[in-house]
Amino acid sequence: MPILNRIAEFQPEIAAWRRDFHAHPELLFEVHRTAGIVAEKLRAFGCDEVITGLGRTGVVAIINGQRNSSGRTIGLRADMDALPVTEQTAADYASTVPGMMHACGHDGHTAMLLGAAKYLAETRNFDGRVALIFQPAEEGGGGGKVMIEDGLFERVGIDEVYGMHNWPGMPVGAFGIRAGGIMAATDRFYIDIEGQGGHAARPQQTIDPIIVAAQMVTALQTIVSRNLDPLDSAVLSVTMIEAGEADNVISRTAKITGTVRTLDGAVQDFIEAKLGEFVPSFAQSFGAEASVRYSRGYPVTVNSERQTAFAAEVAREIVGGERVDADVAPSMGGEDFSFMLNERPGAYIFLGNGDSTELHTDTYDFNDEAIPVGASYWVRLVERALPAG
Fold first, then answer.
1. What class has domain 185-295?
2. What pLDDT does residue 6 have?
């Protein structure tokens, strides 16, 4: 079954919604305009229930099928928030808000799910219910977790949940998915080093925390390269070093900040414990003191095996088997859909965005040619998971 004709017919309408969202980006939970438009359209489509304010600014719509003898509800999730990036695309629908842009394609995700909602509300060719989840604050705010804490699954009664993200570099009309970890846990660490400050001309009278920090940055890499099995995926990146206030003063303190990305809980636990052991002892070898604070962020995004196989099968129906990679390489980026997959079985799939620039860059743009592919996938997933016959 290829791209749905009805979806293809209103691709220009969906693209217009997408471009409107793109021109008016909003951050984190402050997606009031976007959520308002989403709720208005869902009501106009004839959805049976539209819930607003779930997880502060989240929106959930319920569409009942022709029957509900199955008693099952499938959840489909899209994210709505943008990023604090100044757009450089020069598109005629470019961001009108200084310092904000849709640099990750959430405008496209929202528009595609709205397109699927319109189709599903018209046809209702399924037995059960579908819950359309429009989530705020994926970009660092943990909006998925907040929606769960606000009673998303209990209030709506979702049995399985599915997510989608556009993927630059993957051809339009292609999908990628894998069972198990598909996106990484996103943790942060904060190291405080204390030495002994003094005059820059008399370093022998000091314990220079910058020297400790410089050596520590290199040594930290051995936690991954010399302590983990090479087949265990992990990234430890130092992203900030702060020290000093003047060019003739050796500072007393220095700070190191970084991120850890892992695809396995045991590896995550190991790195956290290893940092706790390594940092103080390494600093002591220079006569300094150091402490580390480890902050866990989004967990690993783990696809359930059965739901992943099913999602891949649906994708093959839409674009053909040769255009679906069911063992795609995992990403070390993070995704707060992971919180939803920790609560319910489901699967997260990548949708090709073509030859665009990378996510989170100021020249990125969602590819509107992907709209009928993604929206058709959503529709067919519901119809296959909840067959009307």
1. alpha beta
2. 84
